[in-house]
Amino acid sequence: MKRYTKLAAILLIFLGCTEPQIEEPDFVKKPEPVPAKPNYFEPSSDGEYDALKGGLVGKPFVEYYSATWCGYCRQQSPIIKELSNKHKTVSFLKIDVDQCPKTTKVKGVASLPTTIVNGKKFIGLTNSSVLEQEILK
User: Fold this and answer.
1) Is 3 a member of any domain?
2) From the candidates 41, 61, 73, 104, which is the catalytic residue?
3) Residue 70 is a catalytic residue
4) Which of 23, 24, 104, 124 has its CA 20 to 30 A from that of 47?
5) Per-residue pLDDT tens for 23-79?
């Protein structure tokens, strides 16, 4: 019976019905994926914001001020996330105004959502193409 099972398996493989399971030898090393540098940050305090901002001196970045209770912010967040995935050389800071009140006051953010790109403020729900044009400047 075992002989017929083996013969049937060989015929199935030969006819292309199933693919044989081939294991790679242990000495073949697959390259480890290089972890991508994160470019999207959500500081949870004013101190954490200051630390992140200090590391971004001289580099392009976008500051996005929002709140969990803000409906327009919930619509703007996926747009910011999409832009961060598209522009890996630009850092994105999503600042919750309730967690970083000092930073919010210093930046003069009075309305939500507010996005600051290259020093230019965009207040309210902003289209991704408008933000992208400013990022590319």
Assistant:
1) no
2) 73
3) yes
4) 124
5) 666 666 677 776 667 899 999 999 999 999 888 888 899 999 999 999 999 999 999
Sheet holding 114-117, edge to edge: 40-41, 91-96, 61-66, 114-117, 120-123
Give the chain's domain count: 1
pLDDT for 120 equals 94
- The pLDDT, as a whole number, for residue 81 is 95
Residues 103 and 54 sit within 8 Å (Cβ to Cβ): no
Length of the chain: 137
Q: Is 17 a catalytic residue?
A: no
| Distance separating the N- and C-terminal Cα atoms of the chain | 74
- Rounded to the nearest integer, the mean pLDDT of the chain is 86
Taking the C-alpha atoms of residue 123 and residue 132, their distance in angstroms, rounded to an integer, is 15
Domain extent, residue 68, equals 40-135
Query: Which one of 70, 72, 107, 132 is the catalytic residue?
Result: 70
Planar angle of CA 61, 63, 60, nearest 5 degrees: 10
Query: In the 3-class helix/strand/coil scheme, how is 81-104 assigned residue by residue?
Result: HHHHHHCCCCEEEEEECCCCHHHH
CATH code for the domain of 80: 3.40.30.10
